[in-house]
UniProtKB/TrEMBL annotation:
Its biological purpose: Catalyzes the conversion of acetate into acetyl-CoA (AcCoA), an essential intermediate at the junction of anabolic and catabolic pathways. AcsA undergoes a two-step reaction. In the first half reaction, AcsA combines acetate with ATP to form acetyl-adenylate (AcAMP) intermediate. In the second half reaction, it can then transfer the acetyl group from AcAMP to the sulfhydryl group of CoA, forming the product AcCoA.
Any Pfam family matching the protein: AMP-binding
Gene field: acs
Catalytic activity, EC: 6.2.1.1
Sequence positions bearing N6-acetyllysine: K608
An annotated Gene Ontology molecular function: metal ion binding
Family: Belongs to the ATP-dependent AMP-binding enzyme family.
Ranges where the Acetyl-coenzyme A synthetase N-terminal domain occurs: 22-79
Protein's recorded name: Acetyl-coenzyme A synthetase
Amino acid sequence: MSGVYEASAEFVARAHVDAAAYEKMYAASVADPEAFWREEGQRIDWIKSYTKVKDTSFEFGKVSIKWFEDGTLNVSANCIDRHMSRRANQTAIIWEPDDPKTPARHITYAELLEETSRMANVLKSLGVEKGDRVVIYLPMIPEAAYAMLACARIGAIHSIVFAGFSPDALANRINDSKAKVVITADHAPRGGKKTPLKANTDAALLHCDDHVKCLVVKHTGDQTTWIEGRDIDLKQQMAWAKPYCPYTEMGAEDPLFILYTSGSTGKPKGVVHTSGGYLVYAAMTHQITFDYHDGDVFWCTADVGWVTGHSYIIYGPLANGATTVMFEGVPTFPDAGRFWEVCAKHKVTQFYTAPTAIRSLMGLGTEWVEKHDLSSLRLLGSVGEPINPEAWNWYNTHVGKGRCPIVDTFWQTETGGHLITPLPGAIPQKPGSATKPFFGVKPVVLDPSNAQVQVAVETEGVLCIADSWPGQMRTLWGDHQRFEEAYFGQYRGYYFTGDGCRRDADGYYWITGRVDDVINVSGHRMGTAEVESALVAHPKVAESAVVGYPHDIKGQGIYAYVTLMKGVEPTSELRKELEAWVRTEIGPIAKPDLIQWAPGLPKTRSGKIMRRILRKIAENDFGSLGDTSTLADPSVVEELIANRMNRG
Ligand code: PRX
């Protein structure tokens, strides 16, 4: 087969799973999930073992997902304590700071236990108990890992807010989760610049309950404001706290974390993951998809503010007793060779990043890669969006030197871990395809026009999953009804991913992107409605419609149509003002790439904006606008086409 890449015989010989094993195990996992997961559940340590394995229903109105329900465990103990007998002095986390002149830190499992315990004791001293929520708004520093594991240790539920989010976004998440504590730092250095996290937190807390305590990591040492009685110096408290904290026995279905993500409405959704099933799934996918072996050094370049960081920087690797790299910086600081310098410096064996990073580095030339010794690498990974074949080939040739399998992992905040991915020693790769389902995952392709399951192997449609897997989200925080409607309402009996896909004659899946109002900007998920609500909150904006459009580096860019209030002049200053406005309302990742002034928007007679048309114009593909006869005023379309911003 041309365009198909197989792992070397040497790789296959050592792999956890080869082709024959994949076929056999996959068949077993879907034929008898109960038996399959009963055994796989034993990968982690249970305080009280489970007798029940799977109790799940996708029936609309009665959706309920429970795994290993009567088992008890502690996630922090699984990620730390259980490794102490063999790995106390092994490095758990390699911390690579933003500035390469600052020395990296190697944190052993013994140190991780002590620091996590100290932080857990600080949280306890503030009255944080099992089930309480703690919001974490930190840079990529070891304290972020300690904070997650400290919460897990005492049964508190963490909710990480990416440090690029604005005070408003932070306040909404603190309020929605009713957090008792927020953990932040003075500043977050990234790419040589600093984000004022403490100042952002101060601004956020103006909109929150007065009782919320603020733990501050003095990381850069810069001056910040300090509110006595509310702000607490976390490092100082940790130094005073006891170095050991016993862990709490948790039910398998007790929540581990909430992670807010974008949906198709304006309000972000609080995705809830629980303890037992999530950890089993994160650990198993980390070991098998990345073919992790003892002694490897695993690097996932994501931020812990995203699910990728949760599952593949912290929980999966640490549950497996791995050495995981935590990187504070960006790929292009101080130069475009930083990723490769770090790989060479720490002898990274598995490297996992997003296509957007590869595309941006591709444009800067191969000399940045060639400068560094990448001979330690054995496997490469991709996540967050479809990887285009050019980027795949560049990654394969220049980074992997043609000898590292590439795992293109398709999954979501909601899925906890990989759903569709090549297993490197088992499934030959085709550039751009996420290939085949992971164990226990039953993908189905539905025809969106009639919700029928497509039986032909070669087909196209929307991607749903027919049965539960242990890493699946359980609910939306405080809104189970919205959970059912968003994921199980449209295609009854199935979990709807929100993605379109194609299945080829070999049964390989090719994800074609979101079919809802979610866009994927540089691998970050953004709801168009969120950006719209931010824009219309500006006093000069009357109305707005936001769509995605193809962007060479980011995958998708944000294209905003804006109708101004009567009498307001559309100027380039106002355009800048609106960009800055969205940055402050949501965060820099939501800044529109293109803003088009729209005197009118294409609406049906009932007032519904016809986004299909706006998408086409934004894509510069207005030759086939389809039926516009239902528009209240078809002339607005001509105007929008004439003044379109994307002519590429
Ligand atoms: O559209 C899919 C895309 O990212 C969405 C999930 O985004 P998020 O919840 O932020 O999680 C990202 C990291 C797991 C999906 O609905 N996506 C993710 N991975 C891939 C992908 N699209 C194509 N190929 C992938 N490998």
